[in-house]
Amino acid sequence: MAALQRSRPDFAHWRSFGPAGLIMLYCGRAVGCPAGPDLLGRGRQTAQLTFLFALAFLSLRRDGPLCFHCPALPLPALCPVRYAFSASPSWTPRCSGFLTGLGACVKLDDLEMSSRLRAAMMCRILLCLPLFHAAFALYLPGLAPREYNNEDMVELKVNKLTSAKTQLPYSYYTLAFCTPPDGVKATTENLGEQMMGDVIETSAYRIKFMEEKTCEKLCAKTLTKQEKDKFRNMIADEYLVNWMVDNLPAATKYSQTGSDYSYMNGFLLGIAQKGKYYLHNHVSLDLEYHSNPEKYEGFRIVGFQVEPRSSTPRGGEPDCSTSAVAFDLDSSDDVVFSYSVHWTENTEVRWASRWDAYLKVQGQGQIHWFAILNSLMILLFLSGMVAMILLRTLHRDIATYNQVPTEEEAKEETGWKLVHGDVFRKPQYSTLLCVVTGSGMQLLGMSVVTIVFALLGFLSPAHRGSLLQSMMLLFTLMGVLGGYTSARLCKVFDGDEGRWKMTTFMQAFLFPGLFFGIFFVLNLCIWGEKSSGAVAFTTLFAILVLWFGVSVPLVFFGAYTGFKRDRVELPVRTNQIPRAIPDQPWYMQPLATSLVGGILPFGAVFTELFFIMSSIWLHEFYYLFGFLALVLLIVMVTCAEISIALTYFQLTSEDYRWWWTAFAASGSSGLYVFLYSIMYFNSRLQIRHWVSILMYFGYMFIMSSIFALVSGAVGFLSTFQFVKGIYGSIKID
Question: Which residue, 259, 439, 571, 620, has most beta carbons within 10 Å?
């Protein structure tokens, strides 16, 4: 890999290779990546290249190019990089609109590959040939790098004001800031940005590329008492100002470890000390650029830091000297806003890796790995215990049950075989069980596909709102899976046509309606606070269109498809008269087993849950989807094993009411998630406003319910297959 050389990304001369052929293989990070730090180290490119799986096709010409599109695999965070291979030394790779800006092209014209390496590569390629027959150029808007030249205008845009204390965002121009001479213009936002309360608008700052400015006056304002009170309240609530330049958010240096700085997204509006409120009315904008004349013309912005200051003006002009007195809102009604601009060349950071500063995990990667190893140890222990109990015990039980018993042995027979005539008896609230299982599978499908897209680099932080928007759209589309699952399970319970329609109706409206109702009430409360976090009624209408126009029909289509299929064949028949259930000890009661069962799935997700909640409520970036994918896999296996184990113990004690126990044994982990959110609220957050408290617990209830539905559905369906298997393995007289 040492022979890898970057070639110039010639975006202007891109030609689609068409049927001539490309093959894109997703693999490890070997060149710069924009979407996150490589936690396994930048030098381990060869090892990461082993994470290959095919997504496209091969050129049929011997001298045709062979291209790789690579996001950063390993697990922590993935970002795209592209490689180009050519059998002809005269071919020069060209890059462009295909995932433009997500990576760079490299050529291997000078790379001498061994015959074994070439053969191994060709084997992987040939395996991909049946998958695709055409190539298409793909362009992700907003990610193409932009080159600047001297005196080019650099647009600074403003976004919402945010606070971890109130969780209520506000538009930038809610406060008496300087407005552009031609008026404020809003930027078109996607559905995810609108849901998050983003308000991206133009600003009055005039910045030209490579033009230095020192203590430039922006405007002077005379603040009214009401405007000053707004500034005071927001400074007291520690509001952050969020700007962006070239789609790069403003960052503030707040700590240093060796030669590396840590960055905070945004900068403080002001500082409150000893009852006084100091407004940051001067900002120093430090912009970094990178140039590479051999690969592209012009310069690219790779860094944007803001250093805010508070200074009292002198004679109506800004004072940026080191001896300037901080501007106290109580000292004067007149405030002067000013700014300085400094340009610095950065030869180390390239455009493709400029997001690394924001996504640095600052040693947290070791915490993630430790947590995953800890979860794996728990999982291995649980797997060993389940394997020992189930395999050995079941093997002995099945062998014993299949023997011809004597008359005395038949009288003394105990265990799970005795309830074979009742084990598949329809449970109470069977319709609700179908609905919660179908909803869990719908949410699981949404989660898995979202994580896959994030791993492939499509949900980059540069695409603001893309993660939330993708989750909403995928939840809508996964209505097919939810309807299909609930209808198939309904048919197991001998559901007739009227029953499956009722089940499908509840599948389409019960939990989506519950979540939308909570969201609507919270939105009204936020709207009452005049926060930009309140979703507009036009956006609510768009959500309703997705729900009623797309999701509901897909749920009914999936349910219709599932109900038309043959009924799941059960290995034993159900007796007409229910069998009496022996008295159960307290620790085998459904409530006790459910509470115990939820501990292990919660323990597996505990650490990752902390970082996810910090990302949501402390406004931090989260881009460790590789870790999240591994944790999701561990949690799903844990849910399956704990539900199977507890159900087996229940059947052994001759209690055939296992249906809801199988769901609740793993689904109760959602209760622990909600209890943890209470602890997190008391220990990590300083929220005091009643609307903010209501919003926090409302959204955490939704999150906990989602986790309960997903884990419960996985545990139940795994247990259902297990029960079918063990009763299909014994002889029933």
Answer: 439
For residue range 647-706, list pLDDT tens digits in order. 988 998 888 999 999 999 999 999 999 999 999 999 999 898 999 999 999 999 999 999
Tokens of residue 294, six digits: 């051999």
Nearest to 156 by CA among 339, 282, 291: 339
Distance CA 380, CA 390 (A): 15
Rounded CA-CA distance 534/390 in Å is 52
Residue 484 and residue 508: Cα distance in Å, rounded? 11
Phi first, then psi: give them for residue 527, nearest 5 degrees.
Answer: -60, -35
Among 586, 564, 588, smallest CA distance to 655 is for 588
How many Å apart are CA 587 and CA 203, to the nearest integer?
Answer: 64
> How does the average pLDDT of the chain come out, rounded?
78
What is the widest separation between alpha-carbon atoms in the chain? 109
**Which of 52-66, 215-229, 564-578 shows the lowest per-residue confidence on average (mean pLDDT)?**
52-66
Q: How many angstroms separate the CA atoms of 319 and 358, rounded? A: 31
Bigger pLDDT: 733 vs 578: 578
3-state helix, strand, coil in the chain (%, to 5): 45, 15, 40
Residue 171 makes CB contacts below 8 A (sequence gap 6+) with 160, 161, 199, 201, 532
Q: What's the one-letter identity of residue 67?
A: C
Gap between the Cα atoms of 130 and 9, Å rounded: 30
Stated pTM of the model:
0.78
User: pLDDT digits over 528-540, tens only?
Assistant: 999 999 999 999 9
Encode 686-728 in three state secondary structure: CCCCHHHHHHHHHHHHHHHHHHHHHHHHHHHHHHHHHHHHHHC
Domain ranges of the chain: 5-131, 153-359, 364-403+415-577+599-727
Which pLDDT belongs to residue 451? 94
Query: What are the Cα distances from residue 457, in Å, to 103, 118, 132, 610?
Result: 11, 28, 21, 23
pLDDT, position 619: 86
